[in-house]
Amino acid sequence: MRVKYNVDTHLIFQIGDPVDHATAPFLHNAMYDLANVNAICTPVFVPRGHLPEFIQAVKTIGASGFDITMPHKSDIIPLLDECDEASRVFNCVNHVKLVDGKLIGIGLDGVGMGLAIADVTDTLEGKSVLILGAGAVSGPIAADLCSRGCTRVTVANRTVEKAEHVAKTLESVYHIDTASGPLTEEFLEKAAAEADIVVQCTSLGMMGSNQNYESLAFMDKLRPGTVCADVLYPTSAFLQRAEALGMTTVSGLGMLLNQQIAMIDFRFGIKLPQECLKIAEESLVCAVALRDLRDKRIASENHAKERH
Length: 308
Fold this sequence. Notes:
Blueprint: E1 10-16, H1 24-35, E2 39-45, H2 51-61, E3 65-68, E4 82-83, H3 85-89, E5 95-99, E6 102-106, H4 109-118, E7 128-132, H5 138-147, E8 152-156, H6 160-174, E9 177-181, H7 185-194, E10 197-200, E11 227-230, H8 237-244, E12 248-250, H9 252-268, H10 276-307
Parallel strand pairs: 1-2, 1-3, 4-6, 7-8, 7-10, 8-9, 10-11, 11-12
Antiparallel strand pairs: 3-5, 5-6
Helix pairs in contact: 1-10, 4-5, 4-9, 5-6, 9-10
């Protein structure tokens, strides 16, 4: 990997608590290489509550910015000088850049999924979206789809009040038609029959998990050609059912990789082609493999210490 390590190098941090399992720095550095920019991303542990001190350090050393994982995605917002509307109203920022002394933040989880869905559709203008779940990524994903032309969003969640909050927020910001309701078969069947796009934003149906939807029979009501997307990857019970029904599918991998293209555009104003996603995917696989090897090494070293 090409890194110049000179005074012109853009220094960018990946911060979190914890941060030792993060694969993002490896992936981001691969993207910088693809974009031919003189930059490096390195992980830094920042305990919750210590963002002000970290920000001061960033400004002091002249770093270009930082990327954020839990638990700082919401805590950073009051400390920003500028933030896009969708990230602010849904309280989620994961990238910050420093420009002329100002901290500018944005949340790109929704953008990543929006790009991935747009890549498999002719147009999003006038489309109707069904969002399953009302967690941290649900609002940003729905917001991005609205910004791309979708005109109706239905949010279904086990806690209906959370679904109502996401729906009302979208309605007030984007002036679209919204609806909300429970994750019940009756409500989902009606919503599925009217949807052009369904985005699964819960952990239900994740491979290796015992938690799943009580029934996915509501998917039989989907119209031919419906796009079915899931924040989970590599697959899920929802995606497997969608594939069996012949629907167009998008996994969480598409969201993650497209987010990298959006990140490069945000940081450096460089628009990478979609062909870069294949290389980004290879880099992600390498990052996960290196993390797994590190975990095994640490476990082996700890075991050796216990024996002695």
